[in-house]
Design a protein that fits this description.
- The protein has about 300 residues and is mainly beta.
- The protein has one domain: Lipocalin, CATH 2.40.128.630.
- The chain is about 5% helix and about 45% strand.
- It is built from one helix and 23 strands.
- The strands form six sheets. It has a five-stranded mixed beta sheet with strand order 7-8-9-10-14, with no helix packed on it. A four-stranded antiparallel beta sheet has the order 2-23-21-20, with no helix packed on it.
- A hairpin with a 6-residue loop joins β18 and β19.
Length: about 300
């Protein structure tokens, strides 16, 4: 018999994200049977804002997710292969279909790359992968092609500039440094003035960013968002582009890395918590996930 739902129950059902009770898209790793979330059991911060989850590819091989960006609503994630707990290894770029979670392409990066800490959109049809002292420009294949593309440029970083994370907007590339002390900075480099080797003298602007910054991206309004994280916390902050002051804060899962925005304004990110290297952390969340910014608290 059909049973009419009460209005309060109907409202709760409509407001509850359906993904919480569902297995993430993609292929679950087989090296652990841990459940997603805080261990031994519990939700991650701002779970109600997470509307889609996709298992990070390459986890069983030991890959640790780092850089991320979004191009034409496909998510690109860069990772490094950690062998016996190493912090550097083979770098690989993955392309994910955000509709079904399938991995639609992969590209191994040059041997100079060892961490792949950041990604950013570049000129049309191109992305940047940032490593500690090197950045790589990748010319993308069409989204429907079986490959991702090819590396067409390599730039070496010197001086105070490191490629811990990156952000791209218009005609510029931003490169930021991860630090646990001091005053790390995010530097802006005009694309038209990039050369084979760059340092802080080549930047036309910079700002101080928070300690433990892991990723950055500009939203459709041009506002700058930065992630911070470690094995015990994760955070998304909005910064004043001139002063570096924090204008907003939102908790995220521990281990949250780089970020990017899709055409609908949703934020995509990935956590390294629960990858083989960081399996002992209290958070198990090695997924690429989409965040509804309006639901953040």
């Amino acid at each position: 018999m059909f049973r009419r739902l009460s209005w309060p129950l109907l409202v709760v059902m409509l407001m509850t994200p359906p993904s919480f009770a569902e297995e993430p898209l993609g292929t679950r790793p087989i090296y652990t049977d841990k459940k997603l979330g805080m261990q031994p059991a519990g939700p991650v911060p701002n779970e109600e804002a997470i509307l889609r989850r996709i298992w990070m590819p390459g986890l069983d091989e030991g890959f640790v997710p780092q850089g991320l960006t979004v191009v034409e609503d496909a998510v690109y994630v860069a990772a490094y292969k950690s062998v016996e707990g190493a912090g550097r290894g083979l770098c690989r770029l993955y392309r994910l279909d955000t509709g079904n979670g399938h991995t639609t392409g992969a590209l191994d990066l040059p041997t100079q790359c060892g961490h792949a800490g950041g990604m950013a959109r570049g000129a049309p049809g191109r992305v940047w992968v940032a490593d500690t002292r090197d950045i790589f420009e990748v010319q993308l294949d069409a989204p429907a092609s079986p490959g991702i593309g090819k590396v067409v440029r390599h730039i070496h970083l010197t001086g105070q500039v490191k490629g811990s994370f990156a952000a791209g907007v218009g005609d510029a590339l931003w490169l930021g440094t991860y630090e646990t002390f001091g005053e790390p900075r995010l530097y802006r480099f005009p694309l038209s003035k990039l050369k084979d080797e760059i340092n802080e003298q080549d930047a036309d602007a910079s700002l101080v960013v928070p300690l433990r910054s892991q990723g950055a991206a500009f939203d459709a309004k041009g506002e700058l968002w930065v992630t911070r994280s470690s094995g015990s916390f994760g955070e998304l902050v909005r910064l004043d582009q001139k002063t570096g002051d924090v204008l907003a804060r939102h908790a995220l899962p521990a281990g949250t890395e780089d970020i990017g925005f899709d055409s609908k304004g949703h934020l995509w990110t990935v956590s390294e918590a629960g990858s083989k290297r960081w399996l002992s952390w209290a958070t198990f969340f090695p997924v690429v996930f989409r965040v509804d910014m309006s639901r953040l608290r």
